[in-house]
Design brief:
Structural class: mainly alpha
Largest sheet: none
Number of strands: 0
Oligomer: single chain
Order of helices and strands: HHHHHHHHHHHHHH
Length: 258
């Protein structure tokens, strides 16, 4: 296609046979590792979280906007570090990034199916091998944020998509520790109402709407809370993510209620 021919014109051959796309691919991997190290060193500072998501906002759209022939999602270490962030900006920003990758992966699959070995991505990894990891991200984020259960061992065997959080919990013995300690609140550790990143926002929503803390969280309240997060607290990334992957939220978005 014309877009690929234009990309070839921009990326002129370099002496020594250097592959532009391979260099770009490995640079992104290197930046991912550096970002994780920086977050660890600075205790997940919100400014670094913004920088990390700004980087992957660009990376997520390289294929759809600039016809770069690969799609490279962030590493599991970075993704789950943002999910477990004590600040809403980290969680919401990563949710927004993951929702953007859906279109990129769909575009990449169409291009590879159409052009096969003629496509430049055949010269290097296209990223299609990362789809299973990406699907695991979606499963874990939906379970943690929406279904209120980030680790579901009973789903590991019956689901084609495997939870990376669940696998890690098995490997490290977290499940056994949970059972011994009888920690029932683990189901609420990362959700949108009780987690350390969002509990203050939820209390604000309840107070502004005249609800009591003891009131149950109905579906209507939950949807109203999503609109509050998006419009009043700047957490648009979470609503974009849930509208992309959760059908009831998507239907509300179509009706302009979110």
């Amino acid at each position: 296609p014309a877009s690929l021919r234009n990309m070839k014109k921009v990326l002129q051959p370099i002496p020594g046979g250097i592959d532009h796309f391979k260099v770009m691919f490995e640079l992104i991997c290197f930046l991912d590792q550096m970002t994780v190290m920086a977050l660890i060193q600075e205790n997940d500072h919100p400014l670094l979280q913004v920088c990390a998501t700004a980087l992957y906002h660009t990376v997520a759209n390289l294929n759809t906007k600039h016809q770069v022939p690969f799609v490279l999602p962030p590493s599991p270490t970075l993704v789950y570090r943002m999910l477990m962030s004590p600040t809403a900006i980290g969680v919401s920003s990563m949710c927004g990034i993951l929702s953007e990758y859906k279109q990129s992966f769909q575009s990449l699959k169409n291009i590879v199916n159409e052009h096969g070995d003629e496509h430049p991505s055949a010269l290097y990894r296209s990223g299609l091998e990362k789809i299973s990891v990406y699907n695991s991200y979606i499963l874990d984020f939906c379970n943690a944020l929406w279904k209120n259960n980030p680790v579901r061992p009973e789903e590991q065997e019956k689901n084609s998509v495997k939870s990376l959080l669940c696998r890690h919990a098995h490997e490290t013995g977290l499940f056994t520790w949970f059972e011994k300690a009888d920690i029932s609140y683990v189901q609420k550790a990362f959700n949108l109402t009780d987690s350390i990143a969002f509990v203050c926002f939820f209390n604000d929503f309840m107070e502004e709407n005249g609800f009591q803390e003891t009131d149950s969280v109905s579906a209507e309240k939950k949807f109203g809370y999503l609109a509050f997060l998006s419009k009043e607290r700047g957490c648009k990334g979470i609503v974009d993510f849930l509208a992309t992957f959760i059908k009831p939220v998507n239907e509300l978005r179509k009706r302009n209620l979110l």
